[in-house]
Sequence to fold (293 residues):
Amino acid sequence: MSDIEFQGWTPDPSDARGTASLIWSCMATIFLTTWAAHHPMVSQTGFKHRLARFIRSIMLPEYQAFHAIDFLTGALKLRNIIRTRPGWKDWTLCQAFHVVIGGWKLEETKYQRRRPRKLMAWMAFAAGMFQTSPWTFVDLVVVSKILRSDAPSPDDTRNRTGFGRLAKALTVFQVLWFLANITWRLATKRHISLLKVLTAAYVVCGLSVYVALFCCPQVVREPSIVAASGTLGTTSSPGTLPSTFELGGRLSYLLWALMGSVCVGVYLAAWTYPFNSDVAWWLWRGSVRPCCP
Fold:
């Protein structure tokens, strides 16, 4: 590799890329891999929640990968438990994800005779009455309060949800183009800027999210209303749901450390990168530390 020659802002030449093109390519890739990868819960579909999740993904890119794998683990185990019940053999992973993100609401007519009189109390009561948690769903299926014929079909689930196919397609195209450019520069022994090294960490975490949540509905346009036969009864503790939502202990820390090591490894690979000034040296290392778990 030839010696590195530092230079300032470079306009786009006719046969190469300038500073503006480099910044635009990296920033667009980082934005798409963090913003478009957002798969919110039904109760957190507002812009404020999405913006907060976006900022958190920028500061901790490995967190969104950890969160996606956590969701996948819960959905897989929920699907496997539901499939053990008679008549539920065709329960899909997409439907399990739909339950995990809160896309189901129970219709319980007996509660409607006990409506509070005050408006605010009724709003709070209704929100709690219709909310269906994953472990409540498991309990109701196990005790046959919800039959397979009462549950939404796969077609109904697809009609009520959006997968953001256009956003995902644009993201995948941008990521593949970025990775192809990185591979070409490495193959031809060309220099790779620190901005591209940083972007590579976001790309790895973003692709992990897309793989883990490939079957997960990205936007629930309208929750599915399910009529449970009989009363709700008592539900068991959240530990009934065989997922990692309430996960604590060694496995949770191990998974977090695994995701964190992805970004830390990329940052450490560029730790001894030559800088043209001490200020740039401290800015890089100072900006890396908050991103490390």
